[in-house]
Amino acid sequence: MDFPSRDAWEPSEPPTEVSLVRPYTLTAGRTRSLVDLPLEAPIQALQVAPAPRWPRSDVRAKILELGADGPSVAEIAARLALPLGVARVLIGDLVTQGYLRVDATLAASETIEERRELIGRTLRGLRAL
Fold it and tell me: Bridge partners of 102?
């Protein structure tokens, strides 16, 4: 089996700017999401009208941009260099506002290979954190 040399979720270039904002300022101090968001849960951006008018530098806009590819919660946190709790709260907010959808994770009927793929994706996302 051939594996790609670079994980698809690894940033292609190092971040160029450092955020001076404390992470929990982004969530107004909240540490829990109203939506159940397992680490491995795939997130999908929804096409909504009107689209939000956030600046591209806004972390919510970045989450929506990443959501087009269907990453997991852990992968989004890793790509944006956010603490997992902050990512969960922000993603949960976007789900309740109708911008994102949380897809189901594995069910009891899934194959061993599907379970291994999920574990591999989750581990890659956690390592990137």
Answer: 43
CA angle 62, 55, 24 (to 5 degrees): 60
pTM, two decimal places? 0.65
Q: Could you write out the DSSP letters of every residue in 35-47? A: S---TT-BEEE--
Asked whether the CA dihedral 19, 83, 59, 90 is positive or negative, the reply is negative
Nearest to 26 by CA among 70, 62, 59, 3: 59
Q: Are 60 and 94 in contact (CB under 8 A)?
A: yes
Within the chain, how many helices (H) and strands (E) appear? Answer: 4, 2
* CATH number for the domain formed by residue range(s) 34-128: 1.10.10.10
Residue 52 structure tokens: 């939000």
10 Å Cβ neighbour count for 113?
8
Taking Cα atoms as reference points, which of 51, 100, 49, 106 lies closest to residue 73?
100
Q: Tell me: the pLDDT tens digits for 3-22?
A: 445 444 455 555 555 555 66
SS3 for 119? helix
